[in-house]
Amino acid sequence: MVDPISGKSIxxxxxxxxxxxxxxxxDEAGLDIFGVGEHHRLDYAVxxxxxxxxxxxxxxxxxxxxxxxxxxxxxxxxxxxxxxxxLDLLSDGRAEIIAGRGAFIESxxxxxxxxxxxxxxxxxxxxxxxxxNKNERxxxxxxxxxxxxxxxxxxxxxxxxxxxxxxxxxxxxxxVRAGKLGVGMALAILGGDPARFKPLVDxxxxxxxxxxxRLEDLKVxxxxxxxxxxxxxxxxxxxxxxxxxxxxAVHSQRGMxxxxxxxxxxxxxxxxxxxxxxxxxxxIVEKILRQYELFGHKRFMAxxxxxxxxxxxxxxxxxxxxxKVAPVVRKATSK
Length: 335
Description:
This protein has eleven helices and eleven strands. Strands 1, 2, 3, 4, 7, 8, 9, 10 and 11 form a nine-stranded parallel sheet that branches. Among the domains are: 32-162, Luciferase-like domain (TIM Barrel, Alpha-Beta Barrel), CATH 3.20.20; 165-218, no CATH class. The radius of gyration is 20 Å and the shape is globular. By secondary structure, it is an alpha/beta fold. The protein is 45% helix and 16% strand.
């Protein structure tokens, strides 16, 4: 994406180098997890999360590695499982996966799928993936892919099973599905009052318990856009051009109004009681802990690289997240 201040963009190769460096920094700084998304567009560099994460595995030591998210509706679950099982072996057991239906639909025509099957594809693929996660041999029949007949599913991951989460953006049926399946629920909370997501967490827990899963196994995670600086005012001033740039691009890609976000709109989005994680370390801690009181979630992930943000600003956010935010949150939530 073009930097709205310099007017310059970087190559896909440079973008990959920066992703590698960001992951290495996050690992060395003591953060717990690093994720990369999946897009099939020229303005994004990563279309294959397991390939990128396998490269990251070779330059990191302890940080968990996840997709964020895998567009499960348009990928073969067998191929996906084998790729992430391979990543798990290469990383000594650090692979995870967040699966979602996808915010963009370019992968449907690209891989020969019909958007009318948007939900049905995801339902079938997540159920098959979870069975692959438990069984070395599989016999299976479905609607969208060829049947399996006593098929060997190889390799097996180093972990007993690959930790699997379902990305949920705000749809009650998605929360219920994650609960019934007994997988983690990764809530994407991108703005507004986070309290509006509390009913989804309740639905998730209720559906999971009704399906026979233990409450302690029903893990909630929160993901959100974020930017950190030494002061909240500095963070807002530095991040505004890039966040406005991001939303203009996203709306344009979806055929929506692509005008520039006003400063007043941005101020409203970054208010202390909202879900956009932009501010000083102290402000971010307050927002995370407020959401913890609502959800009791086990994980928080911030997307800190957005809108053409220069890499040195990404580095600063990672450093502040690791040194000023994570230790405080860990201490507060361990009580």
